[in-house]
Amino acid sequence: MPHDHHAHPHLSAEAGDRRIGLAILVNLGLTVAQIVGGALSGSLALVADAVHNLSDAVSLIIAFGARRIARRPADAGMTFGYARAETVAALVNYTTLILIGAWLIYEAILRFLEPQPILGWVVVILAAVALAVDVATAALTYRMAKTSMNIRAAFLHNLADALGSVGVIVAGTLVILYDWWVVDPIVTLMIAGYILWHAFAEVGGVIRVLMLGAPPGVSSEAVLQAMRQEDGVADVHHLHLWQMDEAHPAVEAHVVLAEGRWSDADAIKAALRARLKALGIAHSTLELECHRHACNGARAIGHG
Fold first, then answer.
1. Fewer CB in 10 Å around end: N or C, the chain?
2. Which long-range contacts (CB under 8 A, 24 or more apart) does 128-133 make?
């Protein structure tokens, strides 16, 4: 899934909410149909697809709620605002994807040990309906997923489910034509593998934001060097570089001014902020220090 933050027009918040709300409704309706069909047909792959489809609906509900919370302004209790609600929602959704993938592997192994009969036509028909719903849901959330890790997590739930539906159709067809019941648990394992692959590929970025890690593609050392190269700067230390949310990196640092340059403090600070902005960092907190009273033995990056 590309993480492109440019050249994609944003939907309004209200339009985005309407799309997600519609996606939730169609996924809940489909989940009920799949569970009933899976129980009647005896298809583990269809039940697996239904459970994952239910997780799609739940993930969309979580994403919807997080979007609404994230738009709340900063207050005395949450001085940085509520934007990280979307990051937390993404972590919850990726965690559920991992748990679902593990459960599907367990169920597939049991089905290998104790094969069950499958009604192929019921499986194929319901999976085809599921695929249509999955494609519609993906279309509703695709554009928002490009700029939000929260919506991207929900989108990947749906994408995995769409491919799962394709797998279920293949499994049901082979059961009809050749009575190859073993294809059902094999497809289930493939669905589980795809889910786990995507979840582990994306969850690291979410954890990085929550752990106050430096933004991908922006080196702390490069930021430090760029700031130290500014005319009038003798040293920079106590540098902290992190992401306030997915799209907004931030930096704070102590800046030691060169001897005789204290009168230029405001101009130097403005020049530093311009350098940082050129690196994609619009939010900066800079503490200026006179060279005579600078911190002794301070670490360049981090505290200590």
1. C
2. 128/165, 128/169, 129/30, 129/33, 130/30, 130/34, 130/49, 130/53, 130/161, 130/165, 130/168, 131/162, 131/165, 131/166, 131/169, 133/26, 133/27, 133/30, 133/53
